[in-house]
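Just wondering, does anyone understand these C-alpha cells?
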Amino acid sequence: MRFVIVFWIMVLNCFGQEFNGLGDLGAGKVAVVAGGGAITIDAVTNWGYAGNANQTVSLTTSGSSRYLLVGVATAGIASPTGVTYNGANMSLVASTNNSDLTTLKLSVYGLVAPSSGTHDIVISISGAPSEWVFSACSWTGVNQSTPYSGTKTNQAINAASPTTLTISSATGEVVVDYATVYEAFLTIGGGQTQICNITQDGESSLGVSYQAGAATITPTWSYVGNKWWVAAAVSLKP
C-alpha cells in the first residue's frame, strides 16, 4: 500500500470549483454574523508535495481581526516540526494520528493577527517525508483574545465511511474541520461548505470545510470501503 501525493497531477476542488493549479482562492466566501460582527474567509492556499522536507509558499492576508489556520497532513514517519508566517511561529492548535500501517498524522496550527500583505508560510517537516499536503486559510472577524472556543480530534483504523467527530460550538461561531483519509476520494458532508478537497489519483486525500456554529457540530467526509483516517475541528469565535 502506498501514500502518494504528487502536486502536478492532483485535483484541487475548492469552494465547489475544480482547479488545475494552486493559489489564493475564495476571499470573502463566508460571512457568519454574530452581534453585528462577522467571521469571513480572507484567503486560501493549498499545496501537495512529493519528496520535500520543508516548503515555503506565499499567502496574502488583509482585513481586521485576522486569524490564520494551517492544516498539515503527513504519512509514515513524516511529521511537522513547526510552521511560521512572516517569521512568526504558529501555535499547534490540534493534532491527531493513527499508528496502524499508514501512520497518518494531521496537525492544525493557528496564528492571531498575522501580518497583513503578502508573506511566506514556511512549513518544516521531519522524518524524510515522501509525500504530504497542507491547506492554509486566513479569516477576519475572529476574536483576538480567544480565537477559538474549543477543538476536537478523532481517528479510525480500517473503518467504514464516513470520517466523523462532534465538536461543541455556539451560534455565531464558525467550525473549521479537516480530514485526511488513506487511499480514498472524499465527498463532503451535508451542511458543510468546502474550502478544499485535494485528491491524488485515489491514493490520498485532504478535505477542509466550514459551517456555522451551533451547540454541537458533527462534520463528516464520506468515502468508499474501509479506510484509515484522522480528523480535527476548530470552532472560531467572533
